Every structure is written in C-alpha cells, then in structure tokens.
Amino acid sequence: MAGEITETGELYSPYVGLVYMFNLIVGTGALTMPKAFATAGWLVSLVLLVFLGFMSFVTTTFMMEAMAAANAQLHWKRMENSLLAHPGPTHLPPSPPCQEEEDEDSSSGSDSDALTQDNYEQAEKRPILSVQRHGSQHLFEITDRVEMGQMASMFFNKVGVNLFYFCIIIYLYEDLAIYAAAVPSSLMQVTCSAVGNDSCGVEAHTKHNDTDPCWGPLRRVDAYRIYLAVFTLLLGPFTFFDVQKTKYLQILTSLMRWIAFAIMIVLALVRIGHGQGEGHPPAANFSGIRNLFGVCVYSFMCQHSLPSLITPISSKRHLTRLVFLDYVLILAFYSLLSFTAIFCFRGDSLLDMYALNFARCDVVGLAAVRYFLGLFPVFTISTNFPIIAVTLRNNWKALFHREGGTYPWVVDRVVFPTITLVPPVLVAFFTHDLESLVGITGAYAGTGIQYAIPAFLVHLCRKDTLLAFGSGAVNKHRSPFRHTFWVGFVLLWALSCFLFVTANIVLSETKV
C-alpha cells in the first residue's frame, strides 16, 4: 500500500539502479512524444523538454532528501524505543569512520503508526546535543523504504495528507484511462483500415475517422469498443485480487520495449538516410505547447516510485550524480526518438502511438516486424494495467482507513475494486485521443506529483529535521538545490503550469 513502510527488497548496485530508473521513466508514454514534437515545432519542443527534464531532476533530489529525513526519524524513534526497553547508562552509537553503513532491517508497522500518531509533536523534547555530539549522518541513511504516502503522513497535516491522496488517485485514474485506451486503439489501428481488412494495417497518408468501416458493417469505433470490452473482461478481474511475482514478466516486457524502440529509431534513420524522410517540422508552433507540456511532464514522471527504486541501491555515496547522469541519458534518448520521428514522417501522418506508424507496408516490408511494432504496446501496457489498478485500489483503502478499523468484506472486495475499474474504462469508452489524455494527465495530476508534493515535502522535512536534531545535523542526501528559493521557484512553476494549461483549454474550447 502506498501509505506504508514496505520491505526494502533485494539490494542491487548503483548502476543497476540507474538502469531501473531509466526503464521506469522511459515507458510507453514516450510513444506519444513524437506527435507532440511535430505539433509544437522542433525548437520549442527541444527547449521545453530540456527545461522540464531539469525541473524533474530538481524535484527528484527533493524527494531523495525527504526520504533521508524520513529515515532519520525512523532510526531515531527506533533508538529511543531501544533505550526505553533497555534503560541504563548508555548513549547513541556513533557512525563508524570510513565505513559504509550496513542496511538495517525494514521497520515494522508499529514504527509507522507511532510516527504518524505523534506527528513529531515531541521533536523539541529530544536530546539534540547527543545527536550532534556523536554524529548524525548515519541517521540519514536511506535503509527503510518509506513510500510517498507515508512521507505525507509524517510531514503533512491532515488536510495535506488528504490532498496528497486526492492527487495520487486522480493521477492513477488518468494513467489507467490512458492504458485502457491505448491497447484497444493499437489493436484497432493494426486490424482495421478504411477499405476493410488489410494486412498492412495503417495506410500511408490516410487519416481515418471513427465512422470509417472496419469489418463489414462494423465501424472502426465499434471495433475499438469491442477490443475495450475484451481488454476489460480479461484484465479487469485482477483489480479484485493482489498482483504478485511479476518480476520476470516485467523483465520480458522491458526487453520487448527496448527492442521495439531500437527498431523504430534504426528504421527511421535508414529512411532519412535514403532520402525518404517526409517530415518538415516547423521550428515553433505555440498552439501545440499545451499537449507537449503535458506529454513531457508525464514522460518524466518517477517521483512517486523513487522510494521503491532508490532504497535497494547498495551504495548511495554518489547518488545525485548517478541520477543526473540518468536524466542526461533520458533527454538524449527522447530527443533521438522524437527527432528521427518528426523528420521521417509528415507531422499530420504521425499517430498518437508512434509505433503504429511502422505498421505500414511502405515503411516495413517484413510482416513479423510490422505486427511486432504495431502490437508491442498491447503486451507492455497489458502487464502494467493490473499493477496500477491494484495500486489505485490500495490508495483508496489508505485514504479512508481509520486506525484499528477494518472494512466489511463487500466494501473491501467489491466496492473498492469497482470504483477503481469503472471510471477509467468509461473514459476510454468515450475517447481514445491518447495525446490529449496524456497531456491532461501530465498537466494536472502530474504537476502535483512531480512538482508541488516534492516541494512541500522537502520544505516541511527540513523544518522538522531542524526541530528534531538541531542545526548541527546534516542530511547527507540533501538536495544541491537547498536554498529556499528553489522550493518557491518549483511551487511558482507548478502554479504557472496549472493556470497556463487551464487558460489554454478554456480559450481552445471557446474559440469560434
């Protein structure tokens, strides 16, 4: 559950962690980026991509600092409990010099409950001098996996906690709606054409309407909704159970994803090299910035998963540098994928799911490759849908959970899974405009999770750390953007993004 302190998991090296973070950020959402690039123009898109990547890096360092502060509170609470259980003339053990701290066991639920209940109101009563005298850096080791919801419970008040869960639930709903629309949309594009069944799938330079025929009397929109119904019937039941042991399935889907990305980039480069590139994107088209902004924010989303990703890293000595390197590599990859796409294909022929542009006979002659690229979003997204659904269901439970209370069986096993599954399927039923879905998700809920929540967390955790341990305690994982200016700048940017996107939507809807 997102609000709990969970098991750290099997440790891995920093470079394995770098690969995991790369895989987490670069998901299937990257497939919507080429069309957004073509719509907004290559220069505007590149500048905005770099800036949003930088902003995401800033808030990632905020999250790492907040995770370390949360771990310090847990470690200190554990030491206090140990002293109460074994009273005597003892003192807190100092950190061994020139020696890596060993990972401690994951904290129990009682640690979490105690920290949440007292809300650190006793912080000023702690023996601050003993912390400063014996060294405090070992307290800030990230050894317990404290999820984002638990950090909200530790540092926010009740209103802040509820707002956090509201934001994460909205984001997960929109995420599920994107997944529920992407799979049947991909199947429809591959299996339908304007002239009936066509083994080449998407035709060159053809813009299809939902009312175009697919199979006999069935329209394309009918085929889409049939696929959506099948998708819901096959994967929806997983929402009513727990999804476990998906490690090897995730490895397989990650492998498929990178093979597909590599094939698309190589094929686009080959076409451009042979003089078959059709794209002539403008340098700037400001009318496309709204969707581009949302797509870019969504494509850098990782803050909510950082505790699961960062905590198992065995050595965190150069953690900030590794994360920075990851962001540089991700920017390079996004730029390569998008630029090869917009110069290979005409802007008006780029589809919401970029992979579907390769389901054409004139682009890919080999049928096996055509179908693999056209259908790979189906396989990768289908494996993620149950995991996201269970996460959303658990967040609903955490939001309404009361200490010591349990849910009736009907509420626990029927009501929560149903309210998790039905809304995104309904959204997908009425629209399969993936670029708009991704743009809205990134622009609203994504802005809250990626900017606002990390900024508030780091600001409040710094105040709490100062109260608990005094000015002599130094968080070894503190952000390089430690000045208060950066917190204010991130919050101002988040507000500006929210207002800009809202104004843009209102003006677009009211434009005659």
UniProtKB/TrEMBL annotation:
Xref: Gene3D superfamilies: Amino acid/polyamine transporter I
Keywords of this entry: Glycoprotein, Membrane, Transmembrane, Transmembrane helix
Bilayer topology term: Multi-pass membrane protein
Principal cellular location given in the protein's record: membrane
TM helices/strands, residue ranges: 12-31, 37-58, 155-173, 224-243, 255-272, 292-310, 322-343, 363-392, 485-507
Domain Amino acid transporter transmembrane: 20-67, 150-466
Calcium found in the keyword field: no
Region named Disordered: 87-117
InterPro entries: AA_transpt_TM
Family that this chain belongs to: Belongs to the TMEM104 family.
Name the record gives this protein: Transmembrane protein 104 isoform X1
Naturally occurring in which organism (per UniProt): Erinaceus europaeus
Lineage: Eukaryota, Metazoa, Chordata, Craniata, Vertebrata
Gene name as annotated: TMEM104
